[in-house]
Amino acid sequence: MSALGVIVAVVSVAAAAAFGAYIAAWVDIVLARAVAGVPVRPLDALIAPVSWGAAVALKARTTTERPDGETWALAPALLAALAAVGLAAAPLAPGLLAADVASGIVLFGAAMALVVVAVFLQGWSPNSPLPMIGGYRFIAEGLSYEIPLAVVLIAAALPARSLAIAPIVVSQENLWNVIRQPLGLPLYLMAALGLAFWGPLALPEGVDLAGGSSLEISGVSRILWRVAQLMVLVAVSAMGAAVFLGGWLGPLLPGAAWMIAKTLVLLVLLIGARHLVARVPTERYVIASWAILIPLSLLDVFIAGIQALVAAR
Amino acid sequence: MILDVTFWAFAALAVFSGWRVFRADSMVRAAYWLLVSFAAVGVILVLLKAQFLGLILILMMGGEMTIMAVFMVAFMMNPAGLNPMTMVHRNRVAIVAGVVSFLAIAALGLFARFPTAPAPGGVDPTRRLGVELLGDSMLVFQTAGVALLATMIAAIAISSARGRFGDADEGSVEPVQLVVADAGDEPDEEGHR
Amino acid sequence: MTSTLARLASGAPSRCFALAGAGAGDVGPWLRLDPSVAIVDSPRAADVLLVLGRLEGEMLHAAAAVHDAIPPPRGVVVWSPDGWSSRRWPFVDAVTVRDASEIAPACRRLRDDLFRRRLASSPDALPDLDPAPWRGVGPFGQGGAGMTGGVPYGRPLAGRADDRDGLRLDQILVRVGPFLPPFPPGLLLDVRLQGDVIQEATIPAPIADDAGASGREGPSGAPVPHGHPARLAVAADSPFTTALTRPVPIAELELARARHHLAWLAEALRVSGLEAYGLRALKLAFGLDLESAESIDALDRWLRRNVSLRWGTNRVGVVTRAQAEGLPGGPVARASGDDRDARSLDPAYQRLGFEPVVRGGGDALARWRLRVAEARQSVQLAKRSRTSESTPSGVIEDPRGPLSDDVPPSAGLVALLPALLVGMEWGDAVTTVVSLDIGVIDPAVREVTSEGTGP
Q1: B116 touches chain C (CB under 8 A)
Q2: Mind listing the pLDDT tens digit for each residue in C312-360?
Q3: Where are the domains of chain A?
Q4: Contacting B residues, span 149-178, partner chain C, CB-CB under 8 Å
Q5: C273 vs A50: CB contact, 8 Å cut-off?
Q6: pTM of this prediction?
Q7: Which residues in C280-316 are b (16+ Cβ under 10 Å) and which e?
Q8: By the number of CB atoms within 10 A of the CB, which of A136, A203, B49, C85 ranks highest?
Q9: Which fold has domain C234-407?
């Protein structure tokens, strides 16, 4: 792997992530206007993220009393880096994969497991009660979505007999995983909402915490945190499209176009969930996740295992 | 060349962050310095072509260090190190034990004879690892893993205050209260009479 | 660079943090309908501090602290229905607005002027001092005796206490309010938190003001007598205050009630995370007329079908029948099975065949459903009533509860909070407080549950 190849890969993943975050911000505004019943004006909404960014960038950065400065600076950068690594694990087209590792699923899982660290640090660092509660809540939420996420991804890897993403996409040539493993995509999307702490699972940043872990940030830090969150949304949508919706497979159009289209579909689904589903109550969600979602994910892997056994005969 | 530089850089990071764990006053920082150390070791494992092991190490340690950080914040009085209160006990014994263990493991690493024959090419390390670890008992381990998970969840559900049969403090009586108390006995801070 | 950013930024809504004082009424919620203004949840995210209504005594001090939390460039916009001003006003160069319709354009202009450097950012209102001096005091310089004393960096060492599972975990004492966004303005709570579980909530005593008696003054400078409706949390031009002494068309009263309930619903939906759908309810409230019963029905159907809303409010914040009977009345009591309604005693309503809406359960979901049902009933009553008028009797059923000269409409609800919130998680506590619809709390009539002087 040459140095130039590494640089090209890093730059292209960063650019894709940033562009994806912008599209996600635009989709969020459009869907919010549609649900609220106000005129949507999508072209006008294209400039809205830039206006918001400019307005926020003109504000001074704040500090609180004795914050943990280094971790506070680290948290958004870490979240953005993890999102980029997650996006790098998803293939755009056959052969166009930034992180071509033999255990692509595990790379994605490791990157997403560290999201808990980033959000907890964002809540811990300001030395303020409400962000701290947001950090605690996210740990409870993170531990709860982690096992269903890992298990449904493993179930999707079973028919491919490989942990790398490209073979998983190829194994869906006859039938997409969303059809032959019906529990997989819904459970994955629920975990994806938690990974991006978005919508129903926006527990660390809920309105009941007056913004929670982003209560104390201002200026450029606020922009970085929001962009990092949107990048996580893009990364989980891309991985979901690759693993459950057949990635680059599809007639007529080139593979990359299909991959982008499927990512957009999942992105719109995830963003729309914010405007139609209320935020979950923390304790009830934790109980439901451990007592209901984990058995459902185990059922999913059993179904995948039985299908693999039958196919082997 | 790049491989060597990467290896030495991450090895140095692992040792440095391991040392910082003991020097940090903030408990959360200590937990995350330990995570950095483990992550550096995970990267070294990936460099050694044990990709699955290295990535799994990072995945597991992320969750575990966060849980450790939360427990330290929940149980310790001075988790961020903002007060000058010392939070270490038997400092000298711990330092001696730490240095002795470090020297012993370093001696192992330096003086043991590791196999020098290169691994055969084209082998899938994940598959070989699975076969080596679990052998013929793969189904047993799968079912044992699921059974362990179910046991943990069930144990928490039963023992938490809102258990299967209602609140734990309605109906059930703590053993302490069965002792006949004299009038005027008040439990002290630890709940003893 | 700054001017380019300022030009780009002028397309974004101006972000305002709204402080509602006495007499603000429902002005704050209606501002959410204006696309040029964004009401934010945290002062750190705001450009403009919006002061609505009258703030006095410790509320003014708290407003100054909130103002200082806003990062520069910042400004202040003030609106008050009766042109009130205070001797102890802490803000320099605040923009005063006479008419409620001018609030949004004023915020917008102020924000643009601040970003283009035409106006200087508002300076700090309070001196930058430690509330409890600690630097250099004590053997380690942390402000107290030994290693564990003092309040370094404003944070005392956490004490430990039993939690609900019998473990001894850290507990912190946090003073919440008076302007925390999901809570009613003026609500001050001293909360003992273990993680995100509230172990104890008390209402602290008001801090005595130097001017004595909270420096209460009316527009002409004369002190406002205790018990006068202008002193209470109802807007001065509300039809319900007028109806205390004069007959008011029932259609007007009932449409105002429906509007209030729908505005409350919009806020409650926003706190649940459904901000966009809350805007839809707010628009319905703004354009409410006699034919809106079907729209309210559609809204009710959507709410009933939304399982996630039920999940967050079912069996949360239960007010028992006994507690409800201790209240003077109002929707909270009616959601717990108590059927008292001041409208039942009014002969004009009796002629219309009015029956109060009552639900059992007493949880947050029951209160939600009750208010939507009452909104629908109000629109139907308004349509049926034609020109009949209410009978003034000294007590009128305000949307929050019975209103009279002496008793504010949400009397008794704040006193319920300490018992209600114990053992609840923060999220459930906020759901409960929002479902009680307490309105602006007048500090002088606040029901105190502890004599402590704060942390």
Answers
A1: no
A2: 999 999 999 999 999 988 999 999 999 999 999 999 999 999 999 999 9
A3: 3-312
A4: 159-161
A5: no
A6: 0.92
A7: bbbbbbeebeeebbebbeebbeebeebebbebbbeeb
A8: A203
A9: Cytochrome-c3 Hydrogenase; chain B (1.10.645)
